[in-house]
Each structure stands twice: as C-alpha cells, then as structure tokens.
Amino acid sequence: MLKRLLSVLIICLSLVFLVYSRVVPVSKIWKGYTVLYADVAIAENTVLDILSKYGISGVISMREHGKALETMAPARFESENALSMDYPEEVKKYFFDENKRFELYYIPDDFRGELSSALSSLLAFGTCGIDESFSYPFLVPVVCFLFFVCLLFSAESRLSFVLFSIFPLAFAICVPNSINGAASCLLLYGCFLLQKLYQKPNAIFPGFHNVFLLLSIFAPVLICFSVSPKNALLCAVAAIGLLSCAVMILHFDGKSPKGFARNFRVGSSSFSPISIISSPYEVVITREVADCLFLCAGAILLQIVFSLFPLGHFSSGMSVSGLALPSPTASQEEEYLPDLNDYLNWSWNLVTFQYRPLWASVNDSASTFKEGDVVEVPFYGMDGSKVVKRSSKQFVYGQQFLKEMLSSIKDEGQNRIELLLASQGENARFSYSSSSGEVERVNQISLVILFGTVCIPLGMALYYIHRRRKQYANSI
C-alpha cells in the first residue's frame, strides 16, 4: 500500500513540476534585451520613472546614452567622413522607429517579469508595447506524438504504453525545442520497451538488466544537459514519472511476485498462463522492436530538419502593424544603421586626434584606418637640467582598441547603445525591420548533439543485427 501511495505521489508531483516549469517560446529582435516602444507623446522622463518604480535598471535610452556622449572631446574634427563625423547623431536612430512615431527603450532580459507590470502602467499614458512575440514550435511535439501513435499500434499492452508515455509527451509540450524533442523520442521508445517488460517477474526495475532500456531512459537526461542543468532536471523528472507509472501499474495490476498465485484457478478447467522467465532473461528486442529503432532515428532526424528550417510556429506578433524597428540583419541590400565599426572609427578619432599632427589630420579619413595603425603618446620629465622621455602610451587601431573602449563603458556603468550592439556578436550589421524576430535556430554544438542522438537508436539497431547474425552463424 505504501509503495502505491508513494508512486501516485511521485507521479502527481512530477506532472505538476513539468507544467509549472513550462517554457513559453518567445522570439524577439535583440539577444539579451527587450525593446519597449512608447508613443513619442509620452515624455521620456515619465517612461523611465515608471520603469524605475518597478525596479527596472540598466535601461538603454536616448537620455542615458546622451549623458555619456556629452563628456567626450570638446572639439570636432573636419576630416571625418559623414557617418563617423555625425556618429552621435546617427546613433540616435536606434531610439526611434523608422517613421519616428515611437521612442525606443532597451530593457535587459533580467527584468522581463517586472516589464510586464510596468507596461500595464505605461498603457495609461498612450500606445506602447514590446517587441516580443509568442512563437510556439508545434512541430516538435507533433513529431513526438506521431512517433507515439506508430509505437502504439505495435504495443502489446496499449493502456500501459499510453500511461508511460504521458511524461515524455508532456516534456515535449512543456519545453519544446529540437534537443528536447529528440530526447522525448528516446523516452517514448523506452516506454515501448517498458510495456513489454512490466508483466514479467522481477520487472520492477528492468532497466538495470536491459541495456537498450537503460540507454532509452537515461541517455535523454545527459542529452538535455547540453541545453542547461534545468533542462536536464526536467527530463529527469519525466523519466522518474514514467518509471513511477511502471511501478504503480505493476502493483495495481497485481503483477508483483506475490500476486502470481492469483492467476491459477484451483479446481477449474481454465487457468491464466504466466511467464516463468524473469525479465533479465526475457527476449525483449525482437525484430519488430528493432525495426522501431529505425523509426525512432527517423523521428529524431525530423526534429533536426525542423530545427534547421523552422517552418511551423504558432505566433503572435507586435500589436502595432507596420512597425519597423532597428534590428540585426543578414541582408546585403539594406540601408545599414551605424555599427561597431563606425563606433570604432569615431572613438579612434575622438581619442587620438589631439595627438596627431594637424597636417596628418587634414588628410586622414576613417576609411584609411587599418588594423595595426599606431598613435604613440610620449611622456617627458626633467632629469637635472634636461628634458628626457620617461614613458609612452600607444593606441593601436583595431579590435583590441574597440574592446578597450567597450570595457571602459562597462567599468563606468554607462548605459550605451554600443553594449547592445556588442552583445549581438562580431561583424553584426543593423537596419530597420518590421519583423519581431524569429525563434533562435539550432547552433553548431546543438546540431552535433542532435546527430549524436540519432546514433543511439541506430547503434542499438546495428548491435541487434550483429547479434542476430552471430547467433545465426553459431546455429549452422
């Protein structure tokens, strides 16, 4: 009785934990930041005060960005090209939409919960919203469900298989991504093996005796760990839940060793046959079961295809139609906004122009700067009655100089747009876009993990084929 109650408790807690920890897939424009757009009629101070009231800090706004630029060089230089010379003006484009109907504020993702409450307060002052859009990759759980249906037709105990499969399907629905979809397919195959074993004697923990089942139940947890420890924990909860279902069914069905005597009817002409072979020695991997391994590999391959080409998503976009916001772009035909290369040229001129000879500055242009250009600043001191060179400081044009400038922004705690641009990756380009972003595609590491996951069912199938050939050769 205690085992039954414990199994039911674990099942309920596991389901509640999975549902409570569900992840809502969200697509947005910028990595690490959410764009808040507010009607230009709403005063900037009003927006910032409301954000501050809800504990939101680190906001990149035009006012905060401008404070840092005011303390820069007191002189302007005529030698710069138009974009570099007007960089402080050009960069203001990041704080307005293309039609200048809305002013933009960039909120760190750490305050996504507080932003929802702040947005409700801001709506009382006029039109506003955020760039996030709900985007659910429904093909991930659909593939898992189709694989579940295929296995259901081959299952010997369909009711048991359905109960076991609740947790893998719930995991795929609550935390939908390509890696979790592949892990769910493996878990479903583990459920398929489990329903073949649960009626056998000593089958409470058959995974300790069957390598195929062991891989199908526990390998997904390691696979999900590549996403995050929390993701691995959710997968482990799903695995624990389905094993608890197996234990519960075992006892409620009267299939424990103590209950076998009930299957005989003394004095009756009929009886219920039982297996005398315990699960450690039961032949579980038949040809039909091995064929399902190829089906499992095919389901995982579909998850990979849909991760590379995310065609199916339920999505809801931004509330204002036709809103074009600054965003990263891969197009080569867009009219670009200022990027980090423009900031590099501008900051290089800003820092070094006072140390360059005037005749050189007249001929300089931002386009003539190249990686490795050096401006040296000597420092002198008195040695008796002589002036001698004590030390010098070198400025070297290039990525190292850019990193130093970005580090100085972070060290001084400035909320500058350059931090946003740097967080998007090297060589990123930017332009106006009416898209609210797209679901992040699978990266190279995840792709390697997915292909490695395909090798698990294929490896088990090849092992079965090799073992069958060996048995056939020994029987000749």
Helix content: 40-55%
Distance between the termini: 52 Å
As a percent range, the share of strand residues is 5-15%
Number of helices: 17
Q: Could you report the average pLDDT, rounded to the nearest whole number?
A: 76
Biggest sheet, in brief? 3 strands, antiparallel
The strand line-up of the biggest sheet is: 1-5-6
Radius of gyration: 32 Å
- Are there runs of 5+ residues with pLDDT below 50, and where? 70-84, 254-269, 277-282
The coarse silhouette is elongated
Q: Which sequence of SSEs, written as H and E, runs from N to C?
A: HEEHHHHEHEEHHHHHHEEHHEEHHEH
Annotation, overall tally of beta strands: 10
Helix and strand topology:
Elements: H1 2-20, E1 26-27, E2 33-39, H2 44-53, H3 62-70, H4 82-85, H5 87-90, E3 102-108, H6 112-122, E4 128-130, E5 133-136, H7 139-154, H8 158-174, H9 178-197, H10 211-225, H11 229-252, H12 287-308, E6 314-316, E7 325-329, H13 340-352, H14 358-363, E8 374-383, E9 386-396, H15 399-411, H16 417-422, E10 429-433, H17 444-475
Antiparallel strand pairs: 1-5, 2-3, 2-4, 5-6, 7-10, 8-9
Helix pairs in contact: 1-8, 1-11, 2-6, 7-8, 7-9, 7-12, 8-9, 8-11, 9-10, 9-11, 9-12, 9-17, 10-11, 10-17, 12-17, 13-15
What do these coordinates show?
It is a single chain. The chain has 476 residues and is mostly helical. It is 51% helix and 12% strand. A 3-stranded antiparallel sheet has the order 1-5-6, with no helix packed on it. Strands 3-2-4 form a 3-stranded antiparallel sheet, covered by helices on one side. A hairpin with a 2-residue loop joins strand 8 and strand 9. The longest helix is centred in the last third of the chain and has 32 residues.
